[in-house]
Amino acid sequence: MCSRSDSTESKCCLSYSHFLSINNTTGVQFANDPFTNHVFTCAVPAEGRWHSVPVTAKRNDPLGIK
Question: Which value, in Å, is the radius of gyration of the alpha carbons in the chain?
Fold first, then answer.
């Protein structure tokens, strides 16, 4: 899991977590107010090796996660 949080004057806290979900799918959780989860349908191979899973996101855009 990868996590990051930022604090600015306009927002108390903006953070996200990139996680491995059930069935080896990945997801991202954004801690806005309230938090939102986005779970992807593409599975990460369960072969015991490292895999890079990049995610790009644009907050407050329903089509902003790729």
Answer: 13
